Input
Amino acid sequence: MARPILLLTLLATALTAQNYDLVILNGRVIDPESGLDAIRNVGIRQGLIAAVTTEAIAGASTLDARSLVVAPGFIDLHQHARLAINSVNYLFKVMDGVTTSLELEIGTADVPGWYAARAGQAVLNYGVAIGHAPIRMAVMGDTGAFVPTGPAANRAATDAEIAEIARRVELGLSQGALAVGFGIAYTPAASTWELLAMFRAAAKANANAHVHTRSGAGPGLLEATALAAITGTPLHIVHAASSAGAQTPQFIAAIREARAHGLDITTEMYPYTAGSSQIDSALYNGWETYSDADFESFLWPKTGERLTRATFARYRPTGGLVIRFTNREETVRAALADPLTIIASDGNNTPGPPQHPRTAGTFARVLGRYVREEKALTLMEAIRKMTLLPAQRLERRVPQMRNKGRIRVGADADLTLFDPLKISDQATFDQPARYSTGIPHVLVNGIFVVRDGQPQPTAFAGRPIRVQ
Output
């Protein structure tokens, strides 16, 4: 009887060894949580990582990842997603290695509607904040297309309006919003007392405040940190280098000092010297006082022209996306290398293809230009900034994020496979709608959304990231 039992045992072992949907062999697995950086085989089953091992494993499908890095899928905390669904821009994201794309700065006024519009139609994971600015627009009758351009930008709210805005913020959080988004630079008429009410609503729900500070690096940062300190709200400052410009070193140093004194505050950045926004927004109120040299820093992507006082005046009433060069390369490089900064694209969400290269190229640019070519930071550190840090920023309120940004058994099989010698951003300010290269495979929940370097536009593997 011993021999049949032995045969049955061997058969069971063989069947178990085959019980993976996909096996990734011989890849250089980099996991920033454990510090693993070694050749491993990864087994995936039912959308989860089921094995990370040096042992031989087999499955229904096999991918040889020799010469490739196997990293957690990149998590973008700051990708605008105003349109109901924009599969074009989502494809640019996955081709840049992004597996989770979150709209956490401007956010939405309608959390259930936002998620319903994307259900079953996204190639990557998606989530949203309840947004102070869009709610202010709804309450105050502002018809701006994306950010306030009328009364929500330029008029102080009444006490009754503040109460209604706060009520809707609380409602959105109860409906599963990930955080509260604040585009304070776009609502200059909002009083400190109004913002304090919204921070209180965030704190009550244990939700982060993701804040685009008011214009003026120092005063804007001090206001946001004071609001967080008073209410106990976890604070995330968006695009540090873009907001602070030449004062970025002082800006990040102040954030580090606040953290050292117990404030829960983080920040992010994108690796470009230019930002973009709506030309008709309150961000450019007072443009009439700009010098002629100031206008030369603006690029109108629809035509590729640098603006003048006359052309700025012509385009502002009609609205549209404008790019502005406000930073120096050495400032961007230093901020990128700082251990505090998370990588986030602030990518555009406009009809049609991207108009700023950060939408399509942020993550490949970091890995190609700043890691491989300039050695401004290590590969492990760059991956940590793209995966583990953004996951950790959200996981206290959002339990789903505890299984993202890692490569370990039980984690979601969101994986980005790239060639560290070839990965490169191709999007430029002249040609922003170009896919990154050197990322042959991307999986979302165990499903290929990029395979052999080609996007899979009907692989709707994305799931909602939402507080239940």
Notes: The radius of gyration is 23 Å. Residues 73-273+326-404 form a domain with the TIM Barrel fold (CATH 3.20.20.140). Residues 6-15 have pLDDT under 50 and may be disordered. The CA atoms of residues 290 and 366 lie 33 Å apart.
